Amino acid sequence: MSPTSSRPSTPQATTYVKARCHCGLNEFRAGFPTSALPISSDLCHCSSCRHSSGQMAVYHVDVFDLLCHDSDEPFHFKKMAGCDGDGDLIAYQSSNDGVRYSCSVCSSQLFFRYLGKVVEGSDGEREGGYLRVAAGALERTEGIVKPGYHIYVQDTIDGGLADHLRSIAGVDLPRYSLDVGSEKLPPGWKDEKLSKQGSRDEDGELGPTPTKSDDTLHFSCHCKSVQFGITRPSSVSSFPSAAYPDLLYPHDTTRLSKVRNFEDTKWWLHPPGSAHPTKYLAGHCACVYCRLTSGFELQSWLYVPLANIVDREGKSFTLFEDNDDEDLRVIREAVDKLGITQLHIPEERASRKKLKGLKQYISSPGRYREFCPKCGATVFAWQAGRPDLICAAVGLVDETQDGARAEGWFTWCLDRVGFSEQAVSPATVGGLLKGMQASKIETADGVPAKSVKLATPLLPVRAGIGYVERKETSSAATSARFVDGIQAS
Ligand SMILES: [Zn+2]
Ligand SMILES: [Zn+2]
Ligand SMILES: [Zn+2]
Ligand SMILES: [Zn+2]
């Protein structure tokens, strides 16, 4: 079946787009009114969206109709008797008016339902409700949906992802403090409490790191089932050995010997090469795996040694494959049957402590994703070959400590988006790269951030990849600074 088709029985012409979560348990077709395409929607930065997803912003789009992927039957959120094409979603009510639905197996955040206002004088009856679908789950977005504006930027304290994603296809995205129509906040805006604490004094020295408590940065999912903290880099932070991530060296264009990091550079610690690093590397990823397990086109990760992650009591924990214990049980039974007493078998879960509240999704052998099964938030991603260096979801950061970007703790990679070649919407990644370069210039100059317009292409033009936006004009001064700052082609 073609990715899009019209449904003749619908009175209004409808365009259908295939959508799915990573594990494929939920697969469906989302219908949009053809006359309204492309649908401009919001990127929401509110605390509920960030903490219930683990992403820095959430991007859902109004959906008109939902059909099963393999038939013209309506798609149900729970399996219905006699209907093969239905899904299996966990519902989580994150507010009085809103319910989020995520895949029970891979945690992809596929839908948001606004329940509507309670009708006055009624018995809890509601009106004006609607359903939205996660744009990252759609097989294609170009010409169908586009991020049009940022909302609830105020909740981020420091501008969050909105400072990195400023425009798409040359069009600036308005940044509303709250809902659409509220006060607009300029790029570089920071909440007063944060800008005061982090501002430079007369000698140009940065003020104290704007954190409530400088020794631990806290993370939590929306329902608070999962809570952890990270500590400042210490002597154990350089113990892991790890290949470079695609974020730093694109795997398809870099020599394997380099990617493998034979020199054993501790690339996750910043400043690079420092004897006393104070920060960790963070960056955005656009890979298919991140997109389909999250439901958002971008997943922002922090790279942090497991040794620097603590539970809510400040104690360390381990991450391991859930099936390990089952395998050990089978081995133990077999050994008991044979009467072998001298064989050493590793201890079971009792002696190994995992962080409370996590559920595991094994996306492929040796690749793990840990999430909250109650609210659906992405928490960690890790690999069997690198179990002591973990990716933590930036969206769970306690933004009241140091803002949603936590720049007192993280050094953001502003030169590349991981796996940008896999992006479903090259325009979004192109816009993100432009915004990141603008942020880089502002940070390097040490000036209070202000809007910087860029004029030059940010990515080399590759056959078949249309990242480059050429429409913008800007002053010669900012163009010259920009060309100095990056490789122009
Ligand atoms: Zn799934
Ligand atoms: Zn929100
Ligand atoms: Zn949760
Ligand atoms: Zn990824």
From TrEMBL:
Region (Disordered): 187-213
GO MF term list: carbon-sulfur lyase activity; metal ion binding
Annotated signal peptide: none
Skewed-composition ranges (Basic and acidic residues): 189-201
Lyase is among the record's keywords: yes
Keywords: Lyase, Metal-binding, Zinc
UniProt keyword S-adenosyl-L-methionine present: no
Residue ranges constituting the CENP-V/GFA domain according to the UniProt record: 17-155
Family that this chain belongs to: Belongs to the Gfa family.
Protein name: CENP-V/GFA domain-containing protein
Organism the protein comes from: Coprinopsis marcescibilis (Agaric fungus)
